Amino acid sequence: xxxxxxxxxxxxxxxxxxxxxxxxxxxxxxxxxxxxxxxxxxxxxxxxxxxxxxxxxxxxxxxxxxxxxxxxxxxxxxxxxxxxxxxxxxxxxxxxxxxxxxxxxxxxxxxxxxxxxxxxxxxxxxxxxxxxxxxxxxxxxxxxxxxxxxxxxxxxxxxxxxxxxxxxxxxxxxxxxxxxxxxxxxxxxxxxxxxxxxxxxxxxxxxxxxxxxxxxxxxxxxxxxxxxxxxxxxxxxxxxxxxxxxxxxxxxxxxxxxxxxxxxxxxxxxxxxxxxxxxxxxxxxxx
Amino acid sequence: xxxxxxxxxxxxxxxxxxxxxxxxxxxxxxxxxxxxxxxxxxxxxxxxxxxxxxxxxxxxxxxxxxxxxxxxxxxxxxxxxxxxxxxxxxxxxxxxxxxxxxxxxxxxxxxxxxxxxxxxxxxxxxxxxxxxxxxxxxxxxxxxxxxxxxxxxxxxxxxxxxxxxxxxxxxxxxxxxxxxxxxxxxxxxxxxxxxxxxxxxxxxxxxxxxxxxxxxxxxxxxxxxxxxxxxxxxxxxxxxxxxxxxxxxxxxxxxxxxxxxxxxxxxxxxxxxxxxxxxxxxxxxxx
Lengths: 287, 287
Fold this sequence. Notes:
- Two copies of one chain form a homodimer.
- Chain A is an alpha/beta fold.
- Chain A folds into two domains: 5-105 and 274-285, ATPase, nucleotide binding domain (Nucleotidyltransferase, domain 5); 117-268, ATPase, nucleotide binding domain (Nucleotidyltransferase, domain 5, 2-Layer Sandwich), CATH 3.30.420.
- Chain A contains ten helices and 13 strands.
- Chain A has helices spanning 37-49, 85-93, 102-113, 175-179, 181-188, 200-220, 237-249, 256-259, 262-265, 275-285, and strands at residues 5-10, 14-22, 25-33, 56-61, 65-66, 71-72, 83-84, 97-101, 122-127, 131-137, 140-141, 224-228, 266-267.
- In chain A, the strands form three sheets. Chain A has a five-stranded mixed sheet with strand order 3-2-1-4-8.
- In chain A, strand 10 (131-137) and strand 11 (140-141) form a beta hairpin.
- Chain A is globular, with a radius of gyration of 19 Å.
- Chains A and B meet through helix 6 of A and helix 6 of B.
């Protein structure tokens, strides 16, 4: 009998939950508002218990998180600081629980069923309200000391061309401070999705994302960079990022993947809006 | 009988060779000038053949290199473009040959016998004539698509405070362009080792290295960052880099390793000038 995996995408505004044997065989799905830990985790447990059998559970969570303890740690989200998310679910269901960052879960989902099939080294970065990245090196998820915080790298910032000081409360003009959704809105006075495709916002946005892609490529040497999240829904953005990344690297990384096939090197996710919850299922499958 | 490993540190000015069972039992060592591939590789083979037995050979090479083919590829070093380094040595000695970047070899040496013992995730970066980095993720050397080129990341560059345009022929003011040995000399008009410890050069140098350490920490989440190479021989530099890295990260990466023990987080190599050749021996041992 095929194993039943549950995936929980634990986000700051909602928890997406699904269970089944894989993306083509989902037996149940639900979307729960993120309210208090007791209420939301209680509702997740109720959803999971409503089904005859769950063999393993994967949780891809907003952070910062502690992978060893299964806790959400120093989040600014009211009420969620020091929440024992993985433990509460493990105790209630009494099955193995895998716990990782939301971006590592999405990376694993793309590896199992999406844009990173057959790759051993790649990164998945989400560009939305926040910017975060996960990925694989040598076929294993990247964790290290804590977990990557790829959105907080520092980049060249031409203050004359772009006087916006950046919106990150920790770093000001790190990548997230310059290029997340709220930064776009604050800089231009309009929500990102209302800016026309030929607005100068997109070239500048692509510049910061391309500088970041170049830095990640130089540091990790990934076989592919997957850029997801709400901001990447603007279809005009991806080609600009591809082109500028190649220009910034300027032929230094000697690889046809970059010099000749940049459109396959920097891509958007194949699992779309379901990347998170399917990735969480992949975490469970991976146990 | 203990296995005999040979290590070859293939550098642009010299090839350091050693063989033995480990760092405390070196049976022979030699240092050969890097002239032409025929002459230098011939001398390496002669050195290796002069000994009764070699069980495996490790080569840590200057680059760029192709790990799959064992070639040095597009180096600007005259005569060395497209040189079959690993193959020539393998055919001559007929034993297994491991081939990797000089920095991955040094990283492996520090893992076997130096500052990275017991770690699974760390990076080793050399700051000298060039800047390059290697390291481990999940206990395995980092390779990816080609190999990391950590020296070529882009950083904030305050042109008013530092009008030096950078010396990298590919990128201008990437990290290597701003902070390698030649950049120091060009910016200040004196060789790095002649600048007094309280010269403003060192604070600026530490700023660029700290921005890079912060970016690497955010991207890879290493358990430790080892900074080697000639420029790091200036003892006043390391504490400045440690302090500024902590300031730049500003408490965001929640880890006592960074917030409380930065002096153990960013360190210099323990194997010193022998890191390269011992690392190459570690490559052979690792086969």
